[in-house]
Every structure is written in C-alpha cells, then in structure tokens.
User: Fold this.
Amino acid sequence: MEYRKSTILDLRKSLDNNEITGEQLFEEANKLAHNYQNINSFVTIIDKYNHRKSNSILDNIPYALKDNFSTRGILSTACSNILKDYVPVYDATVYKKLKDSGALLVGKTTLDELAMGGTGTTGNTGIVKNPWDETRAIGGSSAGSASCVALGITPFSIGSDTGDSIRKPAAYGGVVGFKPTYGLISRYGLFAFASSLDHVGCFTRSVLDAAIVTDIIKGYDHHDMTSLKSVGKLQDSINDEVKGRKLFYFKDVCDPNNYDKNDSELIEVLNKFNETIDKVKELGIIVEEVEFPKELLMALYPTYMAISCAEATSNNSNLTGIQFGPRGEGNSIEEIMFDARTKGFSEFIKRRFVLGSYILQKENQEKLFKNAQRVRRLVVDRMVELFKTYDGLIMPTSGTIAPHFEDSSDKLSDKYLILENHLVIGNFGGFPSISIPSGFVNKMPISINITGNQNNDGLVLNIANKIEEKLGYKGIIAGDDNV
Amino acid sequence: MIEKEKLKKYANKLMFDMKDEEYETLQEEFSIILKQMDLIGQIEGIEKVEPMTFPYANNSSLGLDEFDERDVLTVDEVIENAKSTAKDQVKVPKVVD
Amino acid sequence: MYKVVIGLEVHCELKTNTKNFSRAKNEYTNIPNVNVATVDLGLPGILPVVNQEAVKKALKTAMALNCTNPDEVLFDRKNYYYPDLPKGYQITQVTKPMGINGSLKIVMNDYEKDILIHQLHLEEDTASLDHYSNYSLIDYNRSGIPLIEIVTEPCISNSEEAVKFLETLRNIFIYCGVSEADSKKGQMRCDVNISLMEENAKEFGTKVEMKNINSFSNVKEAIEYEIKRQTKVLESGNKVIQETRRFDDDTKQTYAMREKVDAVDYKYFIEPNMPPVKLTKEYLDEIRKEIPKLPYERYKTYIDEYQLSSYDANVLVKDKEIADYFEAIIANGINPKEACNWVTTVILGSLNKLEVSLEELFVTADMLSGIIKLIEQNKLSVGNAKKILYRSMDEKISPLTIIEKEHLSQIDDDEVLRKFVNEALDEHQDVVNQFKEGKDYVANYFVGQVMKKTKGQASPVKTLEIINEEIRKR
Assistant:
C-alpha cells in the first residue's frame, strides 16, 4: 500500500486488516505535511496523534481542515491578521462530526484571507503553490485543502465554497471537489463569508470518497436553521445505472469557435471537453447543448460580487479586536476598533468591504443589492426549469489550467469570462456541484464540473462516479515522484 | 467616477482606513462593477422579479427550534480571547455617548 | 400655546427560558458573563437560531395590541459598530415585523383615547457597558435577550397620556405573561419623540428624540421639561434643532447629545441565516387562544354590567391577579359590588400590610366567597368576618375551620336569640323603662348586650327585631 496514492477506502481496508495503525498513518501524513512546507498547504500542522475511537468508516483516516473552521483549542486564523492569534472556544459542527468519527486532523489549511479570493495567494501566511507546477497558483480560496489532497498528504480535506472556492482549486489541483446542496452540511463554526452562498464541502481523490466524507459530515444541526434534515446515504446510489440520464451544457460558452483562435490553451481545454462529452455519451448518457440567456450569464459575476461583498461586509463586522483578535491601539473605543481593522485586513479585503457596504447603502440598495438578488432568482429559476428535463449541467470547471502567479489576480476585471465564473450558479441555487479531473493540458490537470438540482446530491455523485470510471483519472496525485 | 474622498468616508464608516493608492484601485473597481450593475438593471422585466435571499427554490417549512439551554460558555471562555479584561469582563477604553 | 405631538418607542425584554437567538439563559443576574453562548459573543462562525418562545410571545403581544401579524417570521440585520454589539449587527425586524397597524385604548380621567401602534417587532438586546473613571467593562449577559420594540404613531398629546399609555402597555405585557416589564431591572425602556406645532399648523414641528428613559416618572418629567424648553425656543423666535437629547435623572433636565455629522445608515438587509418560517392560521389561532381577557375589556364589563365605579374598576384591572380573583368570586355567585368591596378593602389592604403577592395570600377567592355567603345568609357579622379573614391569613387556617372551632357562625335562630334578649331585658329593667318612656334608641343598647352574651355571633338585624317584639310585651 502506498499511503499517498490511497483512497479512503484503500486505507480503511489496510486498517481493518491490521496492516497499518492509525498512529502510523498519522505519522506518515504529519511527515509529508512537514516535507511539503514549500507548497504552504498548512497554517498549523498538528504534531500529536489525537484519536477518538469510533466504528465509522473514517476512523483513523487522516484529513486536513481549512483554517476558517472553528476548532476549540487550535489556532483558527482564516489567514487574516485580524485573527492571527485567535484560538476558538468551540468546535465547528463539521469538525466535531469528524472528531467523533475518529478521523485524524493533520492540520489547518491555508486559504485566501477570510476565504474572499480565488487565487490562494492572499492569505497572511503567503502564497500556496500548485504541486503540479510550483510556478503556478492552485486557486482558492480553499488552496491548502486542495494542494494537501493533490500531494497525497491526506486522502481528503474539508473546504468551503462561496463562489467556486472548492471546485476551482480542485480543478487546478487535479482532485475531486464537491459541494453538496446548501444546508446539507451545517455551516456552524464556518467563519462566514457570504451566508446565503457559503457551503461546506470536501476534496478527495475519488468520487466515492467524496460521497463517503459527505455522508459523515452531513445532517441537520440545531445550530444552523438553514441545515436540512438528513437524506439517505449518498454512497448507496453511487453505482446506479446512468444510461438514459440527461446532461446539458451552455452551447455558446463551450464552443471553441466563439473564442480567439490564438488562445491555444483555451481551445485545447474546450476540445478536450468535447472529447470528454463523447466519452460521457458512450456511457449512454444523453448530452445536449442548451442556449442559456447571455444577459444572465454575463450578469453572473457582478451578481456574485454584489451579493457576496454585501453579506461579507456585515458578516465580518464582528472583527474589531475587542472580544478576540489583536487589540488595536488608541485612546477611545473608536480608535482601537479603527486601528485593529486598519491593520488587520489586507487591502484586497478592505476594497471588498467598501464595495459591499456601498451596495447596501440605502440609496443604492435597490439598484445594486436587490437587482443582484433578482438576477439570482432569474438564474436559479431558469436552472430549476432545465433540471425538469435534465439531470445535470456539465461544463469545463475552468477554461484555463492553473495560472502562473504573475497572471493570477483578484482585481476586478471588466473582461466577462463566463467560463471562469459559471460555477457561482451552484451557489446561487444551493445546487450540488462536483468537479472531477478530466485530463491534462500542458501537463497540468483540467477538470469537468457537474451540477444538479437541489437535493439530488446522490444522483450528481452517481453520474460523476460513472464518468470518473470512464475517464480513468481517479486517484491521480501531484508531487516530486509523479512528474 | 466616485471621488476618493467619498470612498475614504465609506471606508472610515467601516472602521478602517486605506492608503491613497489603494483608493485609486478601488475607484477603478467601482467604475467596473457599477458599469456591470448598470447592465443588470437593463435586463428586461428585472424590476418585477422578487429578490432572492435564500437559496431554497421554495421557502422552507423548517420548524422553529425548541428552546432549552446549551452551548453556554464559562466566564473564562467568554473573556479568554480578549486582550484586556478586568473583573471577568472585557475591558475597553471608556465609552462615552 | 403650542400643540404637543409625542411618539413613543418602547423596548421591553421578553420573559423566556433562553435568549432570542442562542441557548444561553435569559435571566437577570449581577454576576458578569455567566449567561453567554457563542452566538451572544459574536464569535466567528456562529449562526443565530430563533427561539420559538420569543416568537410566540412577540406575536401574542402584537395580537393583544390589535396588530396585523405577518405571513411568515423573517428577520433583518441592522448594521452598526458599537462595543455593546459584538456581532457588529443587531438582528431585528424591518421587512416583516411581528405586528403592524395596531391600537391600544387608554382611559384618562374624563376621556378615552386610542393610541395607534405603528409596529411591533422582535429583536435582541445588546451587551451592557459598565463605565468606570477611565475605562468601560463589557458584560455579555444581556447580549441577545429577546426584546420587543413597540413604536406608536405620533398621536400622544401630553405627558399624562404618555404615562397612561406606558402603564396600560405594561399591564398588557403582564396580562399576556410575556414580560415582567420591571423598569428597575431595565426590562422596560422608552424613547420619546416630541415636537411642538402651532395650533393650526398643517405640518409637525421639528422632532427631538430623547433616548433610553428608564422610568415612567422620568418620561413624564422629560416630556414636561422638553415642552417648556421648546416653547421657550419657539416663543423667542428661534427654531428647534432636530437632535437627540439625554434626560438627566438628577437635574431633571434634558441635554443635547454629541451629534454625528450625518444620519447613520444601518444598511438593513434580510438576515440570510434564518430562512422564513410560515405562520399558519392554526399556529396563530393557538396563540390567540392563550390571550386572557384584557384590562380594558374587563374594565368595560365591571362598569357596564357590574355597575362598579370607574375608580373601583380601574383598581381591580390594574393587576391581572386581582381582576382574576375578583372574577372568581363573582363566578361563585357573589354580588359584584359586594365582591368589589371585599377585594378592594380587606384583600388589597392585606397585600399591602403583609407585603405579599396575591398568589402568596392564604385566603383564596373561594374562601372569601364562602365567608361573603355566610354574611349574606346572616350567619356571620361583617366584623367577625373580617376578624376571621385576618386570622386565616395569619395562621394559614381556612376561615371555615376557624368558624367551626370558635363557634363564630352567626346566630339567627329566633328561639336562641329570644332567650338571650329576655335575659338582657331582665337584667336591665331601668333601660326597659326608658324605652317605655319613648326613648326608642335604647333598643340598640340591648343589641350590644346580646352581642356580648353571644360573643358577637348574634345577627344584629334579627336581634333588633326580637328586642322590639319582646320589649313591647313588657
């Protein structure tokens, strides 16, 4: 058994056959975590084996947790200076469930500051490198959780996804990234970015593992009014027959003819996507192209920005350095709050907050915030309508491979890049959405995404599992012995 | 374009300040996002759409939670992360109305 | 003279086991930071979960104030930075308050008036700040305690109406069992908006706001001071400045507070962490059923049906326990005036003297009814009845037991009484003679004698009848 390449199920078998112990697995993971420090996956590495025995399938399985989850007694910084010394007094529900299931926390992973970025470069502890090519970013915000699984440090990790923060880095890192239906996993203890868009989800190296992990951490939580009463086990339907299932993709967005011929990388990504579609069809799945109103697709990004920045401004108003976090200097209460926040947030975060606050201002709210919420409804209604005919949307997760650091920016751009922004549809509608590796372009992984209707998590995983089997990229890992 | 002074005022209301050049970046971003939002406003019939806050297609029928005591912190936990405390409370510079 | 226009914003803490959005205890305590959950501290990652009991009580109060309820429970965020607000926003209701367009009738000495309620909404209290010479301390016990805010229309005309409204409102809270509304514990607080206008003016004058006044008497003094102050300003040809003023408890004056340059924008938006919960008709009906008969309705009945004086009716409805007690006696078939008389004298007097609540008082409505019945049947004198009741309260023994033990029941048996009367007449021939001489009033002397012999048990009316009969025979 090679630990790095093992899935959860592989490790389970080895553990159950007494070929290896949990302690040994933890040591292995811990050693890898330290060895790969150059990638910067972790804010905190746990060095002590700490295990709560259980009968769960995750018992003694190592994992990593994004550093924006509350972990009692363990530093939780969200990679922001304003929380750089924060040690929570309570456990996030997800963390508690994993602890109770005997899973082994290997470390808290690096993210874009407060999860508000998509590059993995804005955290206060430095950039996260892409293990497939260290001159490239892995994307964010769940950068460390993606790189950690891509490197095989842990077979799974937990992230959060507000726009694409699990699915995009999963694509750039060549791993599976899944965020289920909104409310399926409790958000209690996840540091809020945009409450109505935030999802908890996981990174794995197989679709089945994603189902296994989700089955453990899902369920109604009395701490979260938006959490859903639990549905059946997602694993149960993972091998169901998919013949006759129907998928669709956005016609214009995926057509190479609509793009600059000189952008060879993009053209190759789209050509590969079309090859993938052919293989999907070989499974007996019907795939059709659908016209989606261009004006709505163009509106996705500004809509996402408006809603997420507005909610984020409010959600992060608790960060004042009074109850927790570094205390600001000054003689009055205003001065100390002002100082703590001025020093505590990076420029990028501040810009988002000012934008969000502007959008919520009384005189702008109707035109900016409410109009964004209206577009959200138009998009979701349209999708729900399509889900009456189709089981899911299949799209390239991204139109590019992982970008080089110099090309990676979170600065607002007026270039409409629908291929880069369609994943927010999954957040607008709280739809289950999964990204799985679908091949390579320029030796870097590319990925497809499947998004289904609310509460159809089992079906989305089922289709993804069958496609994964067909494509044959299950379990790939990055790292020195792999390139 | 929104004046820098205004942006500074908005930032200050959020209890922080930024560097001069950072406001310039922000100005650019504002023009971009506002231009894009203008386009949204032109979507036909947009004004008739009910704004969507919750990602549920249908409004939830979740029951209201029962009430009983739980998740209560000890006094030490309450003040543990505060940098200045006194008499089991969080201490701050004198607050004047 | 100017016309005074007053609007009130009343905050009242609800009585619930736990807080509005967390599961820490909702309880008044002097020990800091013992009732604090993660949510109340605004820790990263917390989510509010609404307390069903708080929702119910807010809806109930809204119903009692004749408000229209919303179709679903929904909350909004009010965003502002202040050290007593750990989340940086307060969860409140703007989009769908628990009640809108209500009214509450107040009864003044010589008129009645409907005070219009603009809205009632459910929100959370802030943490409390304790100020010391050069620092402040934050205690989060109060953070998140359920609070209802009631906003009236600007329809109150003077300080008396304002205070009467507050008293009536407080009474509604207590009748409905939603709050103790104890202003000493800061459970009921009031903001006053007041403006003056020319008698015939069409538009309101400039509004001055006075925040956080914590007692009814201070509301009265603040309003009266402010009327005088604004009158002076206007009479001297100046304009009233729109501002927030603070009422000082010691000087009984109001002072302008430090003003922010521009109005605060609270950037309200719907709280995304609490999905709307539909309010079904069944659910609302269930709550409505729990509302007891309210004071004004009772007041009306007492006056119209029972023919009590407005004064007595007011005394009775002022406290729900008293009104319930009174009504229980009536339910036992006692004449309302008689019942009112006993309740307002003996019972209320005892509560004051013994410093107990009605609940703690040993004599129940049924016990008192029994005693009043004995009097009506001439089996007990009023004097003895009172003595028995006081003893009963003291010794915690039922009044009927006392009567039995002490043979205190009134004697109205003719033959028994005739025996005592003749004995008395025999003993005092000289007084009998006086009667014969036409001094009728001496008959009362014999009543006294018979009372002495019977230890007060004789029915005075019957005794007098028999004395008159027997004395004429002599």
